[in-house]
Design goal:
With about 525 residues, the chain is α/β, with parallel strands linked by helices. The chain has one domain (about 1-310, about 395-500): Alpha-Beta Complex (Amidase signature (AS) enzymes). The mean pLDDT is about 95. It has helices spanning about 5-10, 10-20, 25-45, 50-65, 110-115, 160-165, 185-190, 225-235, 250-260, 280-295, 315-330, 350-360, 365-380, 385-405, 430-435, 440-445, 475-495, 505-510; strands spanning about 1-5, 45-50, 80-85, 120-125, 175, 195, 215-220, 270, 300-305, 410-415, 450-455, 465-470, 510-515. It has 18 helices and 13 strands. Helices cover about 40% and strands about 10% of the residues. The longest helix is centred in the last third of the chain and has 25 residues, at about 385-405. Strands 2-4-3-5-7-6-11-12-10-8-9 form an eleven-stranded mixed sheet, sandwiched between helices. Strands 1-13 form a two-stranded antiparallel sheet.
């Protein structure tokens, strides 16, 4: 027997050890997290759909497989939350949009198939900005998600639900999607670890498309090792995804474990001089500089690298991304599935009018804004001037990464220019909102892996993120220094960052759970 508090505050890797030793059952562990969800959701609102009965059935199955002596993956029995941008058979999937409300997919995404094969119970579907379009989770079609560190502030976006669920101990792990920073920026704002794998390193089959050349599914956790373990579960080639890389994953779990030894001799760390200047909060910059000092003390060589075209990444992204949004969201027309709104009496009952009324009712303001921007950029007379030019800038950014990685093994920057802002502060100012992604977007344009880890608290008492970039298909290169920095920071603080988080919802959830 164990208390809810004791169980949910373990890392996923610690949970896995206790499951393997028989100290705890998957059903017990899953029920503990469901207790926290019930207690926390009124104040956090990280979930759109909770699948408690299904999760407990999956947990029982994992326990039976373990009792039968079956050789199981390391995370078997550890529960997980899934961003509602990823389809789940038999569980409503909406992309946080009214236009998909009530849609229950008849199939699983590849990553969900892999979770089930690994024996990981699915706790539910987490909230996001509608169709992953936003940086605050204020643009959800259903409700905002609150930051566990301060519920008057946003948890970042679009994957604020997954990050908040992990930060608040509602789930030990979660899946997110990252198109311009939607895993990493919420990670920075909530004090969690968020990873965007190499583009094509994790199958996108079953991920609802936002911008297909940029989207990537990735892991969310509270430790670097936890994200590495989940990354190995979901990664690898998938013939159903035409962008999937037909190669084996690098040894990322091994790299994360090596990093915990805190020995970085021979590693060259490149500080991207174009990321982190004007517009970055002093507290963000201070934590970044302190982390650089720790990396240097562990033997890393710190060098400055230039990426001259990175300042143009925001402009290029906000042409390429809306253009692909315009194309991908054209399928939501009221004809085949999802919401259908017929024209009112007196308006011709045509297919075109039905589509117009359906899309008007089903899409939120931010989605409409991006569809309009993208349609304009792709229109005759503007395609070459806007979309074509943005793609040329993208090529230059890829070349910047290639040049930088000739000088350094791994690149670093702050993850987000600010800590979590208050609700309503930026929602009416789209351009300011877009600037939240200034440090994360280059990785998506370049297709390189990137990771955000907690770097401490700013002067306002809110989490700050430290970002690593690695060369394409070399995700392992960033896991080692990230794990080393995490260990050094925990040693400096004498506790994990989350120990500073006040969790009143855990007190009411802290009942004894029986296996």
């Amino acid at each position: 027997m164990a208390s809810t508090n004791e169980l949910v505050k373990l890392s996923a890797s610690q949970m896995a050890e206790k499951l393997k030793s028989g100290e705890v059952s998957s059903k017990e562990l899953t029920q503990a997290h469901l207790n926290v969800i019930e207690s926390a959701e009124p104040s956090i609102q990280a979930f759109l759909k909770i699948s408690g009965d299904t999760a407990l059935e999956q947990a029982e199955d994992a326990d039976k497989r373990r009792a039968a002596g079956e050789e199981l993956p390391e995370l078997s029995g550890v529960p997980i939350a899934v961003k509602d941008m990823i389809v789940t058979k038999g569980i409503e999937t909406t992309a946080a949009s009214k236009i998909l409300e009530g849609w229950v997919p008849p199939y699983d995404a590849t990553v969900v198939e892999k979770l089930k094969k690994a024996g990981m119970p699915i706790l539910g579907k987490t909230n996001l900005d509608e169709f992953a379009q936003g940086s605050s989770t204020e643009h959800s079609g259903f409700h905002p998600t609150n930051n566990p560190w301060d519920t008057s502030r946003v948890p970042g976006g679009s994957g604020g639900g997954s990050a908040a669920a992990v930060a608040s101990f509602e789930a030990p792990l979660a899946l997110g999607t990252d198109t311009g920073g939607s895993i990493r920026q919420p990670g920075a704002l909530t004090g969690t670890v968020g990873v965007k794998p190499t583009y094509g390193g994790v199958s996108r089959f079953g991920a609802i498309a936002m911008a297909s050349s940029l989207d990537q599914i990735g892991p969310v956790g509270r430790t670097v090792l936890d994200t590495a373990l989940l990354h190995e579960v979901i990664g690898g080639y998938d013939e159903r995804d035409s962008t999937s890389i037909p190669e084996e994953l690098p040894k990322i779990v091994k790299a994360a474990r090596e990093g915990q030894k805190m020995d970085l001799k021979g590693l060259k760390v490149g500080v991207v001089k174009e990321i982190g200047g004007e517009g970055f909060q002093p507290g963000v910059k201070a934590r970044f500089d302190e982390s650089l000092t720790l990396l240097e003390q562990m033997g890393a060589e710190i060098v400055e690298v230039g990426a001259p075209h990175f300042p143009y990444s925001l402009g290029a992204y906000y042409i390429i991304m809306p253009s692909e949004v315009s194309s991908n969201l054209a399928r939501y027309d009221g004809m085949r599935y999802g919401l259908r709104v017929m024209p009112p009496e007196g308006v011709p009952q045509t297919a075109a009018n039905m589509m117009a009324y359906t899309r008007e009712a089903g899409f939120g303001d931010e989605v409409k804004r991006r569809i309009i921007l993208g349609t304009y950029a792709l229109s005759a007379g503007y395609y070459d001037a806007w979309y074509g030019s943005a793609q040329k800038v993208r090529t230059l950014i890829i070349r910047d990464f290639e040049a930088a990685f000739e000088k350094a093994d791994v690149l670093v920057s702050p993850t987000s220019p600010t800590t979590a802002f208050k609700f309503g502060e930026q929602i009416d100012d789209p351009l300011t909102m877009y600037l939240n992604d200034v440090a994360t977007i280059p990785a998506n344009l370049g297709g390189v892996p990137a990771m955000s880890i907690p770097a401490g608290l700013s002067d306002d008492g809110l989490p700050v993120g430290f970002q690593f970039f690695a060369p394409q298909k070399r995700d392992d290169v960033m896991y080692k220094p990230a794990a080393a920095l995490e260990a050094a920071l925990n040693e400096k603080w004498q506790a994990p960052l989350w120990s500073n988080l006040k969790t009143p919802w855990l007190d009411s959830a802290n009942q004894t759970v029986e296996a």
